[in-house]
Amino acid sequence: MDNTYLIEKDFKNLLKEQSAYQEAIALAQWDLRTKIPENGIEQRSEIIGFLSEKSHQLETSEKMKYFIDLLKDNTNDEIMIKTVAECEEKYNRNRKIPHNEYKEYVMLQSKSEAIWQEARKKSDFALFQPYLEKLVEYNKRFAAYWGYEDNIYDALLHNYEPGVTTKELDDIFPQLKNSLSSLLERINLSNYKPDPTVLKGHFPKRNQENFSMEVLRQMEYDFTSGRLDETVHPFAIALNKHDVRITTRYDEQDFRVAVFGTIHEGGHALYEQNINQDLVNTPLATGTSMGIHESQSLFWENFVGRSKAYWETYYDLFKTFAPSHYQQIPFDDFYRAVNEVKSSFIRIEADELTYPLHIMIRYELEKALINDEIKVKDLPHLWNEKMVDYLGVRPTSDREGVLQDIHWAGGDFGYFPSYALGYMYAAQLKEALNKEMNLDKLITTGKFTKIKQWLSDNIHHYGKMKKPLEIIEDVTHEKLNSDYLVNYLTAKYTDIYKL
Amino acid sequence: MDNTYLIEKDFKNLLKEQSAYQEAIALAQWDLRTKIPENGIEQRSEIIGFLSEKSHQLETSEKMKYFIDLLKDNTNDEIMIKTVAECEEKYNRNRKIPHNEYKEYVMLQSKSEAIWQEARKKSDFALFQPYLEKLVEYNKRFAAYWGYEDNIYDALLHNYEPGVTTKELDDIFPQLKNSLSSLLERINLSNYKPDPTVLKGHFPKRNQENFSMEVLRQMEYDFTSGRLDETVHPFAIALNKHDVRITTRYDEQDFRVAVFGTIHEGGHALYEQNINQDLVNTPLATGTSMGIHESQSLFWENFVGRSKAYWETYYDLFKTFAPSHYQQIPFDDFYRAVNEVKSSFIRIEADELTYPLHIMIRYELEKALINDEIKVKDLPHLWNEKMVDYLGVRPTSDREGVLQDIHWAGGDFGYFPSYALGYMYAAQLKEALNKEMNLDKLITTGKFTKIKQWLSDNIHHYGKMKKPLEIIEDVTHEKLNSDYLVNYLTAKYTDIYKL
Description:
Mean pLDDT of chain A: 96
Oligomer: homodimer
Low-confidence stretches of chain A: none
Largest interface: A-B, 32 and 32 residues
Largest sheet of chain A: 3 strands, mixed
């Protein structure tokens, strides 16, 4: 036993080194996106590449293998057992990729992102096409190295949502699509439409910032373990659980961008800030999957931030930050305008209802690409066709179409489904919370602490100690079920559009 | 030759790794002092420690030794020759310290800094004394490992001002002291004293910031390769030559803190921003010594920023940022108030004339400590005695006395002389510039570009390609000479105090 104790101690030191690299990388990225002067960017990318390689070397080192083998069936500590399992999985997956292919791929990624930026600017898919073709090829090859049981796409999905399969998505997404499409149709036919123009007019950035900070405080985002900055593309990033930073974007013509963006990123941040302290400096000290992470951001953004309960209670507070013409806007007009549903081209600007449809388009296309059912060169056309089919609008340029997202340029195939999964998770979790407490009542009585605590106790706390579907089943006592999301959206929009 | 080319290429890759660690460390430090949330501080110190150890391991690695041995007498490239020499010196010095002693010392440093913070707060030297004793012991032991010819203190001085010896300082400082003391005496006897109260009154931070930015632009500080932030203790830090950041502190009761502080740090930053691009990713891509660095910050702060030429020309500009009561302050009253001489306790608040006297006190004490001529426990008393002797004032607490500076708490013995050396270098360099051009005329005609260019061509450009005294002699064609500083101060204060 003494010997195991010493081995565990050495292993923990190795994990601490790994955490140190991760923090250094996260800081370098945060700074790159928020504070770095223009001329520092080039060198910075190299530094991030260097530190990432060091971290990758450590993950796949003989030393790592040595500890995994020694500790695998030789420890009783639950955290240690799961830590070893996590390290083993990373070790195995990463070792399956030949080192030179990994290096080529990393270089291809950064090159492709730069080319994608340019292609998007020029709205010229042809420029990006050869890079995307290579990225798809690499991902297919990696998927083959990693292995899969049923569908090659499963191997990629595993990187973002371990435990979820293509088969499950193919079961659940069409149902969701049908429900949302018919709801969208009814909304489009409604004669009782919100008037979004009431929200127009100059809303000073400083006031938006102050209100956003106020909401973050309500959510109990811990400012002594985080900070809020401004960026073009908002994000949340955890350096460690005591330093989880968020960013937002201000549009002085539309306060919703900053306010709901801040709540969204704040939801991600709460997850990371509330992970069990015992997991610090292990690879378990982070959100368990992209989908569960998204469930936390969407929970706060939609079920709290866009809820009737919230605005009924805090509209007066909001008005103390808002331009004076808001004094004339009746609550109902305001609430309905905030929640307008409107098919649009850009995913990240989509409303609550159409958002999952944007995701499904991407899922279907990337699954088909990886399965060799379609060709990269046909993407722009197929994208636009699906937009017409799912949302009834046809993009007029590739910039507004297939070139809008960075994910594929970064080689992230298998990531998109997490967004829709996260939304379904969130709705199902909300139902579970409602069985114990009444969410709307917690909101109207200002008991945000209880909401945060429930999420922390049931989700945040575990970090990667539980797999995504394990969390869903432990908390909700059933399998993933899209009905909760459909019911929520139906009820909400039936009210707003008098369906 | 082909073989050498390949070896050099591999060596350059190793140096690039070293630069990557340095940038990661610098960023972690910058963030620690400017943006980090409170709860992130503890973990951050560990990350910095980890990265520093990695960097130290690389500097003292067998791989490094291999390249040094292979390339030492086997390259014709001047940059490569000096790079190898720099690496060899670092390798040799660092290898002389046993690894376990180095680690103990690093831990002692951070512990001591924390204790010093507390001791200063409580104004309780006894708390800090045992740590300072250990730090002195380590420094003496390290100095013995490194070796020296004449005085043990030389071995420490070498870390900050290579080429300068205790003997030289003992030649030059007493002369300087005598000249400054007699000048100070005459000033104290003058009946024509400036009235600093004219500068009193609330000066909004934002206006100070805007004026500071304006001055930085005049100096041609490159904002696309840097940024200005706010901190309690201002500093300049180079992540690389394309990312050199500065910070400043705002005192709304005294604009001089921010304005002269910003110019000072801007002077440091100009040095790093204008280093020859060919040196990037070598250990030569930074200022050659603490003293030469300080010469650049003081050149701008004092010879430009506090000069009559500057304020005669830009006082009107300044008044567009200043509170309205400045409209009533005649130029002469303003200029003289800005340049008031007054013996005070705190080094970093000292005026141009008394500043070097503060340095000499520290030099004499630390030299005596390292030479076993005095004991740590006697420092507070000896400090106060010297303050009376040099400046005519006696600190009433250790906080205002021996505990005011962080240097000793960080184990930095041999650092202080750089401040006075830098000032003498600056004055001597100014004289050299004046032989080619007229500094005051460049200032009054707004030709700051020419000032910056002259400093860049003669100093910045070289990075560590030249040793400090080599720069002084190459540019001024004579050895270090304190007369220039004395003459400058005498002329300036004769005018201001009508001596």
